Structure to design on (363 residues):
């Protein structure tokens, strides 16, 4: 069965799994996948959502300063993350918790920066997964430069830059598109269009669908159903294969939805309706794949029970990790300002140390 799927704006997008869990075909993107791989994708999404929910709860309890939830975007992240090879290199934003999971980064490592105890918490070169980037859109420049180096070295690897619909309006993103196109850089620009750049809807950011922006820079773009993990897997795999073979950059727009707040400091009820949220909840990426597993008889209750138990164990491990995470030395922020030290920094360090000690004396 072949289905042409359109968005609210009438733009065709790639879909392999309907919201009802029915498998469909697409003329350009095919996907052969085993029952075990399907269950693996479902497990990835469930565990990623549970970790995300636990981190949100920890922030509400005062254990984290901030948390950017990925709720609703699990398929976009797991599908794209599982499409990559170990040799590929990923440049994330600050919300790619699912991609981090796929790259083998321990979930607890993601929490340190949001607790204020480190600047990232993992070695980027161990998993080819760069540290989170808070500056909106900056990572697309980093990815493009890295990809230019990959091409010059003659390596057969894809570089993937994740960013959101809001970041697509940043100058950094436009500049990275220009350089990637001119230098034929092996980079996949993966835009998660979750419909809201904090409180600004996508239609206030662009008069054309975001994936069509690639045409103006001279490289292809494709829109995929971002709540369909199978379609995202197929499209990202094809895009990565294309850039690895020297055909230049590709823009993938994953059309999805942020079901939670932009971050825990945001109140989405001030700018979007409950009706809109309910409409997208019906397209829940995890529910979609479960419907497929159930209708095809590919998973039983024992599988779901074991997964629930694994989710509970993960949640306990995350809580224990965050509550036992040691506080950093407050003077460490002065250590690497200059490679060889500086008299002014030494003076500032001493002033801060005296200030901090005054609180200890008061106790």
């Amino acid at each position: 069965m072949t289905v042409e799927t359109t968005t609210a704006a009438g733009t065709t997008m790639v879909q392999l799994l309907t919201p009802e869990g029915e498998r469909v075909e697409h003329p350009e993107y095919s996907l052969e996948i085993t029952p075990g791989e399907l269950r693996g994708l479902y497990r990835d999404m469930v565990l990623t959502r549970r970790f995300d929910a636990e981190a949100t709860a920890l922030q509400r309890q005062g254990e984290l300063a901030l948390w950017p939830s990925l709720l609703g975007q699990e398929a976009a992240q797991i599908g794209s993350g599982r499409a990559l090879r170990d040799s590929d290199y990923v440049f994330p934003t600050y919300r790619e918790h699912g991609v981090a999971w796929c790259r083998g980064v321990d979930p607890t490592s993601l929490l340190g920066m949001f607790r204020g105890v480190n600047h990232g918490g993992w070695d980027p070169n161990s998993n080819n997964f760069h540290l989170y980037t808070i500056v909106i859109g900056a990572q697309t420049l980093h990815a493009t430069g890295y990809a230019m180096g990959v091409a010059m070295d003659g390596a057969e690897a894809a570089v993937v830059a994740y960013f959101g619909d809001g970041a697509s309006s940043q100058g950094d993103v436009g500049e990275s598109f220009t350089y990637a196109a001119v230098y034929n850089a092996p980079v996949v620009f993966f835009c998660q269009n979750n419909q809201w750049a904090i409180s600004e809807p996508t239609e206030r950011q662009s008069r054309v669908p975001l994936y069509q922006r690639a045409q103006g820079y001279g490289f292809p773009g494709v829109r995929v159903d971002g709540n369909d993990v199978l379609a995202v897997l197929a499209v990202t795999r094809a895009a990565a294969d294309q850039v690895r073979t020297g055909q230049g950059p590709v823009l993938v727009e994953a059309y999805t939805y942020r079901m939670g707040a932009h971050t825990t400091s945001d109140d989405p009820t001030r700018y979007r309706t409950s009706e809109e949220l309910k409409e997208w909840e019906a397209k829940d990426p995890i529910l979609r794949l479960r419907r497929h597993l159930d209708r095809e008889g590919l998973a039983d209750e024992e599988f779901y029970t074991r997964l629930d138990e694994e989710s509970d164990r993960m949640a306990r491990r995350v809580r224990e990790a965050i509550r036992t995470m040691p506080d950093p030395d407050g003077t460490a922020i002065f250590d690497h300002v200059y490679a060889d030290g500086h008299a002014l920094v030494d003076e500032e360090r001493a002033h801060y140390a005296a200030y901090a000690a005054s609180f200890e004396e008061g106790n």
